[in-house]
Structure formats: C-alpha cells, structure tokens
TrEMBL record:
GO terms for molecular function: ATP binding; ATP hydrolysis activity. The keyword ATP-binding applies. The keyword Transport applies. Residues 266-292, 331-378 are annotated as: Disordered. It comes from Actinophytocola algeriensis. Residues 268-279 have a biased composition (Basic and acidic residues). Keywords: ATP-binding, Nucleotide-binding, Transport. It comes from the Bacteria. Residues 5-241 form the ABC transporter domain. CDD domains: ABC_Org_Solvent_Resistant. InterPro entries: AAA+_ATPase (IPR003593), ABC_transporter-like_ATP-bd (IPR003439), ABC_transporter-like_CS (IPR017871), P-loop_NTPase (IPR027417). It holds the Pfam family ABC_tran. This is Phospholipid/cholesterol/gamma-HCH transport system ATP-binding protein.
C-alpha cells in the first residue's frame, strides 16, 4: 500500500506574499485525491512543498513518520525515492531524448543493468502511448507528448506516492480520458497514494476518491469526493460549473460591486460562460476489466461510512445512493440511516457533527479525510 501523507498547518510565503496558510489534510494511503483551485492559488507550490523542493515557512508534511519540512538533506533524498512526480511543465531534460529522460531516475537511483532499464522504460513508454518516440528530443514533440513522457518518467521507480500536476493540460479530451484511466489502473496495480492537481472538472468528477480545493490562501475543503461534488458553497459551485458568476474573478478575487454587476448582466439574459449545473455525484472510473478491484475503494468506503454522519446531508445521500446491495449488507443500519450512527472517534466542534459552512468562504469546517480538526474548528 502507498504511504500516507500527513500535512499539518503548512504555510508558504514568498517574501511578503502568503501563498497559502495552515493547510491541513491527509492523503489516505493508496487512495486517489485531486486538488482543485483557480490559477495562481498555489497548487503547484503545494505539490513542490510536498517533496521538499520548496520550503514551507511553518507546519509539517510527514511521510512514513518523517517530517520532510525539518528532516536532513540525506533523509529528504531517501524519502524522495518514494515519489514519482509529474511537474506541470513536464520538466524533461531538453538535451536528452525521451528514452534517456525516462531512464534517468533508474540510472540515478537503482543499480539496474541497461537491459533491465530498457525493459522498464519501454513498458512505461508503452503505457503512456509513446512507443516509437523514444529517440525524439523534448523540443521535437507536442506539449501533450511531453506531458505523457513526464508521466512515464514519474512511474519508473514504482513509486508509493505519485504527484501529478495537471496531467491533462495540453492533452485533447480523448487523451485526457486515457490518462484518467491510466491513473486509476496504476492505483489498482500498485496501490500507490496519488495526488492530482487539476482544473479539469471531468477528471475531478470521475477519477478521485477525495477532492480538495485551494482558494484565497486557504484549503477551503478536503474530504470524500461526494462532499465537494454536492457542495452549495458559491466558490465550489462556480468552479465546477465554470461560470463567471461567483467569487472567482479573472485576476484576484472580486469585490461585491463587480459581483452584483455581473449578476445583473446574467439576470438580463447575458451568458454566464458556464455549463449546465454539473454538480452531483457521478460514478467513478473503474479499473480496466481484468485488473481486479482497487483496494483503495474498499478502504475508503470503510472510512467514509465511519464518518458518514459528520458529512453534509447531500454528500451523505450521494454516498448512500452509490452503495451496492453488498455494501448495504456490510454496513447494515449505517447504510440507510439519516442521522448520527455512532460518535466520531475524533469529534469536531464538540459534538462530532458537521457544521454547515457559513455564507462566506470558511468552509474548511468540513471534516478532512482523516477526521483531523481543521483550523479553528475546536
Ligand atoms: N519560486 C517562486 N518564487 C516566487 N513566487 C512564486 C514562486 N513559485 C510560485 N510563485 C507564486 O506563487 C503563486 C502560486 O503559484 P502556483 O504556480 O503554485 O499556482 P497554481 O495554482 O499552480 O496555478 P496554475 O493553475 O496556473 O498552474 C503565484 O502567485 C506565483 O507567482
Ligand atoms: Mg500550477
């Protein structure tokens, strides 16, 4: 099973600019999570902080009991071997062909022979649809191919934790579906803990077990997918539906006057730029037939059912609706109950219940995936 990643109170600034503060979440081992957030909210900075490429100002990021924020360089080097990372720009070496780029971590971190390396490299190139392109330089291929080559390179060490920054950017919708399927299949095969940073709503709706969102320098939500997908929170609603109406603006956040003016335009019949409301719980992508089941799905369901009563009603309903007959038998009364089943082992807000978010953006009140107390939530 992949490693658990525990992030607590993580804060990152560049000079006087705070990127995000007090980020607390746990990536459950072997589950797939997605981090959403408008452009510039610090998703890539978060990902780089998780592997110690950027140094947070405060907080912990613990992997297998090692806090990578404070550990020695030597420890960090060891911990990094657990990770496979696809950076937003692919981060390929421009002077190396794709074969050498993908082989690089194997040559750097393992004692494999060239023939063993060749086998792994071709397997990963095949997986990412790059067979035949191995002799090409990064500058000679398309953006989408570079992205896939970066993913192939991220996978060669059979990582316990896979971080992928916008795997879909530069990819057409069909290739994006293939990448989504690939990530689910990978998780099925190696049970790795996966964090995907993305703007892609379709991917966010169909791939992850857990979803989080960064906005206005905070992690406003992190938890079971059903929570975000059914959220009434204006910023989440706006983001999922890709509408101009809501708190997210073109550059920084909007003021009240701009929001009111935009709403008036839409009320007068002007298109809000969005789609039909796509909120709601849709089925997750299944592993390719023949691969078996994802162990993470069962573990997640056990976990989610134990905190079901702390979740917002719409999320509870979404979870219940997705249960099979077998699940209902397994979870018994819990699968049908509409009120508290049993007290949470880590009660929040004193009563173990979920606190509806207020009208503003402080929706970090939602339970995180490991029932960790959010900031200020005591
Ligand atoms: N090395 C750096 N030095 C100074 N500021 C930085 C650095 N890296 C990122 N930033 C700033 O941090 C903020 C967040 O950047 P980041 O790249 O994490 O955003 P993002 O959420 O990944 O956006 P996008 O969706 O467009 O990729 C930006 O304001 C950016 O300018
Ligand atoms: Mg980014």
């Amino acid at each position: 099973m992949g490693a658990e990643v525990v992030v607590e109170g993580l804060t990152k600034s560049f000079g006087r600019q705070t990127i995000w503060r007090d980020v607390t979440l746990t990536l459950p081992p072997g589950e797939v999570s997605v981090m959403l957030g408008p452009s510039g909210t610090g998703k890539s900075v978060f990902l780089k902080s998780m592997i110690g490429l950027l140094k947070p100002d405060r907080g912990r990021c613990e992997i297998n009991g090692v806090d990578i924020v404070t550990c020695s360089e030597h420890k960090l080097y060891e911990i990094r071997k657990l990770f496979g990372v696809l950076f937003q720009d692919g981060a390929l070496f421009g002077s190396m062909n794709l074969y050498d780029n993908v082989a690089f971590p194997l040559r750097e971190h393992t004692k494999k022979s060239e023939s063993e390396i060749r086998k792994v490299v071709f397997e990963k190139l095949d997986m990412t649809g790059l067979n035949g392109a191995e002799k090409k330089l990064p500058g000679e291929i398309s953006g989408g191919m570079r992205k896939r080559a970066g993913l192939a390179r991220a996978l060669v060490l059979d990582p316990e934790i896979i971080l992928v920054d916008e795997p879909d950017s530069g990819l057409d919708p069909v290739r994006t579906s293939y990448i989504s399927q690939l990530l689910i299949d990978l998780n099925t095969q190696i049970d790795a803990t996966i964090l995907i940073v993305s703007h892609n709503i379709n991917l966010a709706r169909t791939v992850p077990d857990n979803i989080g969102m960064l906005f206005r320098r905070e992690l406003i939500m992190f938890g079971p997918r059903e929570v975000l997908l059914t959220s009434e929170e204006p910023v989440v609603k706006q983001f999922l539906n890709g509408s101009r109406i809501g708190p997210i603006g073109m550059s920084e956040e909007k003021d009240e006057a701009t929001m009111a003016a935009e709403q008036a335009q839409v009320d007068a019949g002007h298109h809000d730029g969005g789609t039909d409301d796509v909120r709601g719980v849709v089925p997750q992508i299944q592993p390719t037939p023949g691969l078996g089941e994802r162990a993470g799905v069962r573990r997640r369901l056990d976990r989610v059912m134990s905190i079901l009563h702390t979740l917002p009603p719409a999320a509870q309903q979404g979870i219940r609706d997705s249960l099979t007959e077998e699940d209902r038998a397994r979870y018994g009364a819990g699968a049908g109950a509409t009120t508290a089943l049993r007290p949470s082992p880590h009660p929040r807000n004193g009563d173990g219940g979920w606190q509806p978010a207020s009208g503003d953006l402080n929706v970090a009140e939602l339970p995180t995936s490991n029932y960790r107390e959010p900031r200020g939530g005591q």
